[in-house]
């Protein structure tokens, strides 16, 4: 260690530990690199050869950024760090595919109180594996040590990605029509939203993450750390299927804001839908947490996905074929509703969200047992 590095270490920043973390993660990161990635790990900027975009008539770049939220607190409490990375990739890349875009490259950022090389490597390995699964090159990242600001075992993760879509193939409200069918795609669990409510419920009931739940068949921490499902690759394969060309009109990633609000964002103004709760049975983790907190499932629809990770709004004539294709990709798929442009009273409907003036959505009926 140089004298300068030694002096820096006295303030709590260990550059040698950071270098070791990079060495531990390099092989996992390299597996996400195709011939488009120029150079390797460690540069000031990641380089991606965009010459393939010349094949597009009018390429539009799609970008997204996100984090994992307070789910990281559970990972820290359980000392399990290799699943958080998939959560991060899913929250970002699955937003990019919503517009029909193919992800190209991603970068990550980890802020921590102290660099523990193996812990950082575990996080990045999870990121890299999810990038590899979604065809996304992990071209760069940053690990920042913030002693005095974060505790020794504290960290937070964030990332950003960019993708590309042909301009005339962008998905969204403009394509949605009266009579379109809404397909729901099953979630793997809580994904990465609503964990502040989860943590509040467990704290109020004096439940530890290491406590085993008979209802969940695992400890609470293990059940809560089930990583967010990755929808990008299956969806892209369906979108690229010539037999289904143009059949998918819009996609909605069910994240913060809950079920109705996220779907309303991708429906055109003047349209509405009622989602039939009876079309699915929420996963056991949702039922158990709601019971534990003294909540009804209906009351937490704005916080948790309740088993729906994505919606696909599709042409009615092709709905059965799209559903079959998604099922063949290993996704759980069911019909949740239908888009209507008829005039009606929209009192009680969610209408748009996050600054978007969209369609109107409400959930009706009771959940299947």
Automatic annotation (TrEMBL):
Matching Gene3D superfamilies: PurM-like C-terminal domain, PurM-like, N-terminal domain
Annotated NCBIfam families: purM
Enzyme Commission number: 6.3.3.1
Protein name, as recorded: Phosphoribosylformylglycinamidine cyclo-ligase
InterPro entries named among the record's database cross-references: PurM-like_C_dom, PurM-like_C_sf, PurM-like_N, PurM-like_N_sf, PurM_cligase
Broadest EC class assigned to this enzyme: ligase
This protein's pathway: Purine metabolism; IMP biosynthesis via de novo pathway; 5-amino-1-(5-phospho-D-ribosyl)imidazole from N(2)-formyl-N(1)-(5-phospho-D-ribosyl)glycinamide: step 2/2
Domain PurM-like C-terminal residue range list: 178-343
Catalytic activity field: 2-formamido-N(1)-(5-O-phospho-beta-D-ribosyl)acetamidine + ATP = 5-amino-1-(5-phospho-beta-D-ribosyl)imidazole + ADP + phosphate + H(+)
Source organism (scientific name): Leucobacter chromiiresistens
Family: Belongs to the AIR synthase family.
Compartments, record wording: Cytoplasm
Annotated GO biological process: 'de novo' IMP biosynthetic process; adenine biosynthetic process
UniProt keyword list: ATP-binding, Cytoplasm, Ligase, Nucleotide-binding, Purine biosynthesis
A GO CC term assigned to this protein in UniProt: cytosol
Domain PurM-like N-terminal: 60-165
GO molecular function, one term: ATP binding
